[in-house]
Amino acid sequence: MSHAHFEFVLSALRQALDMPRLQPDADGICQVTFDDRFVVNVGWQEPFAVWFAPVGAVAPAGRAQVLALLLQANLFWRETGGATLALSPDGETVVLAYRAPVADLSQEDIGQLLRWFAGQTDHWVAHLAGLQQGVSRHDQAHEASSHEVHAGWLASQGGHFHGR
Predict the structure, then answer these.
(1) Which CATH number fits the domain that encloses residue 42?
(2) Residue 27 has pLDDT above 60, yes or no
């Protein structure tokens, strides 16, 4: 790792956040919490500053539908503004990630990048929660309509329907 380049990124972050004591952890990652709602992590992967943030977990209900929607959002970075959505190795946590070559950035650029990435993170935290609620509501509505169809069919056959 180029210590000078990463120190440049850290200096820009300290200035943008007015956090003079901001330091990376033992793994070389800085964590910044925004409004107790989400965490943005900044690390170094020569020659890039790497920005990443967990934006939520994919629930078992509607998992395939939510993952398909996230993949569609990734297509040509259409809905992510150039960042990438991925599933972490735990198989549940959705992570938003972005990397930027530091050699081309000014301190002001890094501050703007932080604000942009925090905005994208905020959007995806809310959007993923909304996607999951929408899929859950869709599944519940589909399940309810399936019960109605089956109940109607059973009644027409002289049977009785009891909900689960």
Answers:
(1) 3.30.1460.10
(2) yes
